[in-house]
UniProtKB/TrEMBL annotation:
<dbReference type="InterPro" id="IPR017972">
    <property type="entry name" value="Cyt_P450_CS"/>
</dbReference>
<dbReference type="InterPro" id="IPR001128">
    <property type="entry name" value="Cyt_P450"/>
</dbReference>
<comment type="similarity">
    <text>Belongs to the cytochrome P450 family.</text>
</comment>
<protein>
    <submittedName>
        <fullName>Cytochrome p450 79a2</fullName>
    </submittedName>
</protein>
<dbReference type="InterPro" id="IPR051382">
    <property type="entry name" value="CYP450_AA/FA_Hydroxylases"/>
</dbReference>
<keyword id="KW-0479">Metal-binding</keyword>
<dbReference type="Pfam" id="PF00067">
    <property type="entry name" value="p450"/>
</dbReference>
<keyword id="KW-0560">Oxidoreductase</keyword>
<keyword id="KW-0349">Heme</keyword>
<dbReference type="GO" id="GO:0004497">
    <property type="term" value="F:monooxygenase activity"/>
</dbReference>
<dbReference type="InterPro" id="IPR036396">
    <property type="entry name" value="Cyt_P450_sf"/>
</dbReference>
<dbReference type="GO" id="GO:0020037">
    <property type="term" value="F:heme binding"/>
</dbReference>
<dbReference type="GO" id="GO:0005506">
    <property type="term" value="F:iron ion binding"/>
</dbReference>
<feature type="binding site" description="axial binding residue">
    <location>
        <position position="149"/>
    </location>
    <ligand>
        <name>heme</name>
    </ligand>
</feature>
<keyword id="KW-0408">Iron</keyword>
<keyword id="KW-0503">Monooxygenase</keyword>
<dbReference type="GO" id="GO:0016705">
    <property type="term" value="F:oxidoreductase activity, acting on paired donors, with incorporation or reduction of molecular oxygen"/>
</dbReference>
Amino acid sequence: MIAAIDNPSNALEWALAEMLKKPETLPKAIDELDNVVGKDRLVQESDFPQLNYVKACAREAFRLHPISPFIPPHVSQTDTTVADYFIPKGSYVVVSREGLGRNPKVWDDPFEFKPERHLQGQGCNEGKEVVLAEPELRFISFSRGRRGCPGVVLGSSMTTMLFARLLQGFEWSIPANQGTIDLSQGREDSFLAKPLHAVAKPRLSPNVYSLQR
């Protein structure tokens, strides 16, 4: 339930908040959607491979704002050494998801929302389609390994579809009386401290929003 609902919804709320805070990113996503999909139909799953900037925005939100600060504790079964650190048998090991995604040794300007860092030629997914999972564990969107998230394909598809249709279907803006977006994080979780309030204005023909039979 957490992986299928909370993880995508948290990432997309952060992504939209970051894009409203950095408004030059929104036209880039809209232009990609209009070029790939057009305005006469809704996004379909078959469009996903060509929506790399849209997915880069979602991926950047996963990097910068993971669903939880840490992964669940693990216990070492034997003495072992990882990255020159000796870990005795029976030790509890906790990995910081925020620390991975914001590591300045891995990411330039780690606290900046920069979707372009995930595009071809920017040192990530070079020559390949942008995906939401991170195979090299430079951040954790969906867990990996033997106990990796079994719903990674479903979760990725749900995230991409929801995000793409929200961006395709509406023009997003900050309420006139709000001033600016507050990107403060909750003190006890990784959600926005204050729920995102935004104005959505339809940008497609009314018939496109109707259910297709």
